[in-house]
Amino acid sequence: MRLLPHPATADIQLTEVLRALSDPIRMEIAVRLAVRGEITCTEACDDLGVHKSTASHHYRTLREAGVIMSRQEGRLKYISLRRDGLDARFPGLLDAILLAAHVPV
Amino acid sequence: MRLLPHPATADIQLTEVLRALSDPIRMEIAVRLAVRGEITCTEACDDLGVHKSTASHHYRTLREAGVIMSRQEGRLKYISLRRDGLDARFPGLLDAILLAAHVPV
Predict the structure, then answer these.
(1) For A22, which of B22, B90, B101 is closest by C-beta distance?
(2) Statement: the pTM of the whole predicted model exceeds 0.90
(3) Whole-number mean pLDDT of chain B?
(4) Which domains, ranges and CATH numbers included, belong to chain A?
(5) How far is CA A11 from the centre of its chain?
(6) Is the minimum CB–CB distance between B101 and chain A shorter than 8 Å?
(7) Cβ contacts of B75 within 8 Å, gap of 6 or more
(8) A60, A68 contact by CB (below 8 A)
(9) What is the DSSP string of B26-90?
(10) Which of A36, A72, A85, B61 could potentially form a cystine with A9 if both were Cys, beta carbons 3.0 to 4.6 Å apart?
(11) Nearest CB to B15: which of A27, A91, A99?
């Protein structure tokens, strides 16, 4: 298992989190992770109609902003919402955003 | 008094709100409005070190996203947070963002 670089929780910036989620595709990915938990990158972008390289860019943006955790296991990459870090850094923010995106929280 | 065009409350989009607030200067403007209520554009950008045309761009972005209300009175333009619209459209979102930005709500 290989863990890609992630920012420390204390380094997660509010404006970067908002920027990461300001793209409709990235918001949809976050919504899927909120609903389904940890899934593979392939599953996360399934039927969104984005090219693999575009999807990789989105995952990287989300990871570098502190919104998702990403780990490689063999040939598969798994991603999940970084709920603990976000809730610790900005209490209530993720839930408010997910609620606004119509995800039951 | 002249009211500039604003989106209808039902047309406010989550990703557009997040995008508008993903810029540190625009976030600072929103924080000032949250703390001080309606103020002039000059006051909102006072000492932020941005050119007047850049400031105008920021106000327009915030207004078109549904984050602020803007009105012209004579030679002065006043802006305020669009609290009623945002709270109606996305309950709890604005408060969670302001809390994350260290504004008492």
Answers:
(1) B22
(2) yes
(3) 94
(4) 2-100 (1.10.10.10)
(5) 16
(6) yes
(7) none
(8) no
(9) HHHHHHHHHHH-SEEHHHHTTTS---HHHHHHHHHHHHHHTSEEEEEETTEEEEEE-HHHHHHHS
(10) A85
(11) A27
In the chain, the amino acid numbered A20 is A
Q: From the candidates A19, A93, A95, A98, which should be mutated to test the interface with B, based on the most B CB atoms within 10 A?
A: A93
Predicted interface score ipTM higher than 0.85: yes
Q: Among residues 4-63 of chain A, which lie with CB inside 8 Å of chain B?
A: 14-16, 18-19, 21-24, 27
How many CB atoms sit inside 10 A of residue A75's CB?
Answer: 5
pLDDT digits (tens, 9 = 90+) for A93-102: 999 999 999 9
| A92 Cβ under 8 Å from any chain B Cβ | yes
Is B14 in Cβ contact with A18 (below 8 Å)?
no
Instruction: Test A24 with B15 for CB contact under 8 angstroms.
Output: yes
**Residue found under tokens 């976030």:** B27
Q: Which residue in this structure is represented by tokens 């938990």?
A: A37
